[in-house]
Design goal:
The chain is of the alpha/beta class. The protein is built from 10 helices and 13 strands. It has 2 domains: 213 residues, Rossmann fold, CATH 3.40.50.720; 81 residues, UDP-galactose 4-epimerase, domain 1, CATH 3.90.25. The radius of gyration is 19 Å and the shape is globular. It starts with a strand and ends with a helix. 47% of the residues are buried.
């Protein structure tokens, strides 16, 4: 039975990726921090799932885990996912999202060399590596020019994938654009919006305060994006892939769709914008061109924007 190791299994993405791989008959080992009480919406007793507690920065323990598990595939989803938090603590962000990836990918390469067993490595990269791009949509050839500590650390990790690909490792960087689900925590603006709309609909709140309503993002369905990561691992040749829908929507569009799904037509009465929630740098539309993924991986998004928002609101209303 093929085995996969997922770092960061306790998050939205880790849970959906584990679900996907388990459904395909793989044995899944997941690394989660001691302080993570939940595990990505997963049943910790699910057949084929083995959980390990540890930290991405604990390299000796990580090396022992990889050697013990002998995975066929390693997916790195661990990290600090908040752009705002990266401004508050850029050093820790750089260590976790950048330097720790260097340790992980070197460990994977070394174990593969020592055992003679090929290991496929997939890095969860981010559209934030493009920063404030001059063109939209972006593709794999778009200049990497981050404008936040988060983006800079992710860019370093992204480049490492190419470096180790040059050393013979089957390593792919999957450049994920915004991808949502009801498993998103409210630290993300999308879940803040859907949960806020649900509270207002239930009469539990009368205001929702957001940042830049005109910011444009490319929002997709998280399980679709995890399926893309699995396809990248299975591809005969490693490569970088932009995973996106190719459609841009403003935060304002997301708000309107969420309030509509909650049964509120006049959302403007309840929502205001506050400069404290604006990003220091906001470029043109972060919208991805998934042509390479479509042509090489036969991957396509399956859930439309309005349906993604409606599914999130439905859960928050319950």
């Amino acid at each position: 039975m093929p085995r996969a190791l997922i770092t960061g299994i306790s998050g939205q993405d880790g849970g959906y990726l584990a679900d996907h791989l388990l459904s395909r008959g793989m044995a899944v080992h997941g690394l989660a921090r001691e302080e993570d009480g939940h595990v990505g919406g997963l049943d910790p007793d699910a057949p084929g799932l083995t959980l390990h507690r540890g930290d991405l920065t604990e390299l000796p323990a990580l090396a022992n885990l990889i050697a013990d598990v002998e995975p066929d595939q390693v997916y790195n989803l661990a990290g600090i996912s908040s752009v705002a938090q990266s401004w508050a603590d850029p050093v820790v962000n750089g260590m976790v999202n950048g330097l720790a990836v260097a340790g992980l990918i070197q460990t994977v390469w070394q174990v593969a060399q020592d055992t003679g067993r090929p290991i496929r490595f997939i890095q969860a990269s981010s559209a934030e590596i493009f920063g404030a791009p001059e063109i939209s949509p972006q593709n794999e050839a778009t200049a990497i020019a981050p404008v936040s500590p988060y983006g800079a650390a992710k860019a370093y990790a992204h480049h490492l994938v190419s470096v180790y690909r040059g050393r013979g490792l089957h390593a792919s960087s999957v450049i994920l654009y915004n991808h949502e689900s009801p498993r998103r925590p409210e630290t993300f603006v999308t879940r803040k919006i859907t949960a806020g709309a649900a509270r207002i609909a239930r009469g539990e709140a009368d205001e929702l305060v957001l940042g830049n309503l005109d910011a444009v993002r490319d929002w997709g369905w998280a399980p679709d994006y995890m399926a893309a990561m699995a396809l990248a691992a299975e591809a005969s040749e490693p490569a970088d892939y932009v995973i996106a829908t190719g459609e841009g929507h403003t935060v304002r569009d997301f708000v309107a769709a969420a309030f509509d799904a909650a049964g509120i037509g006049d959302w403007q009465r309840f929502v205001r914008s506050d400069a404290q929630f604006f990003r220091p740098v906001e470029g043109i539309a972060l919208v991805g061109d998934p042509t390479r993924a479509r042509e090489r991986l036969d991957w396509r998004p399956t859930v439309a924007f309005e349906e993604i928002v409606a599914r999130m609101v439905a859960v928050d209303l319950r």
